[in-house]
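Database export, one record per block. Field names are fixed; values are copied verbatim from the stored entry.
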Amino acid sequence: MIISAKRAAVFLLAAFFAQSSVAMSPVHDPQIVRAPAGALRGTTVNGIRVFKGVPFAEPPVGALRWKPPVAKARWDGVRDATAFGPACNQPASKLNNIYANGPWPTSEDCLTLNVWAPAHAKSAPVFFWIYGGALWGGTNRDPVYDGQRLAEHGVIVVSVNYRLGILGWLAHPELSKESPDGISGNYGLLDQIEALRWVKRNIAAFGGDPKNVTIAGESAGGLSVMYLMASPPARGLFAKAIAQSAYMVSTPELKEARFGSPSSEQLGDFFGKKISADGLAALRSMDAQKLTDAAAAAGFPPFGAVDGKILSGQLVDVFDRGQQAKVPILAGFNSGEIRSLKILAPPAPASATEYERSIRENYGDLADAFLRLYPSANYAESILATTRDALYGWTAERLVRKQAAIGQPSYLYLWDHGYPAADDAGLRGFHGGELPYIFGTMRSTPPLWPKIPDSAAENRLSDAMTDFWASFAKTGKPQSAKAQAWPAFGTGHTYMHVKQQPKAGTRMMPGMYEFNEEVVCRRRAAGTQPWNWNVGLASPKMPAAAKACGR
């Protein structure tokens, strides 16, 4: 066939562009993951694929406010996942403490998660991070929680947002009435469970193993870890747990006033009226941020509610009965927890004599035991230690004891690390001080955080901590070639004392656990007092010894 020069040129150009099109369209784009939830385009940083702001539930707005989360519908096309989502509504952060960061954009449409995955991950363990912030604040976009370094250790990191404050933890009689189960509250916890379900359905597409998920969190994140361990709907969604500075405090019952607290429904009704929103319709009509700010100013207490379904009982009871998730645990606390949280400690008295008088009045037959642990000779330090141990020390040891009792590997630590800026500020071993070492984000701390030296010693400690957490996520055993072996708690009550370098020891703070266990047991038996930071000088009169406490 004879064709003209013009037509020949057209054919040649067409052939060229066809070949170029094939060459320019890769068979596999490493920035795109095609998951059951839908396709996502992320970024790659030093061999780690990063996906940000991935929605795991429908926006909990309008009719979905104060409802259990609804799984996000599968989307069409390729969704951009290169920017973090907004934080959940919370009071504005004031830059007046070491934790203040941001400001972050906030929204009621906030149920997103982030994923850091090694580029060639295959059946990799999953580290599921839950931020702290007293269930009032926090965000998965905080630079301290960047998952890059942990992911470089061969784990997939998932960090999750969950509803906070009154939007996440309100129980109310009208909400319970419209629920098929007759319950309300715990929406923030249900968000965490829905995110774990998303991981189970989707993480294999990122190279993760849905059967090897470790839940981990610090402070309110540690409380959330315990809630998840105690929650029947969360069963089977994770294989291991890490609880950092968790607190096993009493929590309101949904419908019954117990342990010195009104019921969760009573609290919700009371605080609604206190902020001039009498009834569910009025509460739902309020702007999310105005509602959040008003509730915080009024003192609304965000806690889980014992409803018999999402939380089947008080945490102490669930763990005593062995009804918690049967998984390995790593738990610990910090020596200076209250140094940066002095709001949790009562004011100091005028003298040692006044301190001792108050303790004897409050603790009765337990006063001598209290004063041996927390003497009047240096009562300022004793006040800090009292609250630290009642909230965090007792909880950490209780967790490892209870998991060990049901045959699970259990590891205990005490973070007691100091460095010049922290020590000079009187903040040795402060609350959350371990976080940038674990995440390897020591250059990304908030503006007022005591600056961590960029030294060989600090970097070596960070390497060891990252190793420990990553290896626990992989195998259930914390290991590092850069540190001493970490023995399980076991019958020797072994723990890891992290000072300048990790060093194993036995029988941490003798008598601390037993004393606080006795106090909590008496309060549980009496049924009229909470167990939280109402200790030491802030304690009501101690109930009498009870048979339930072995007396």
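Remark 1: The first helix runs from residue 5 to 24.
Remark 2: DSSP finds 17 helices and 16 strands in the chain.
End of record.
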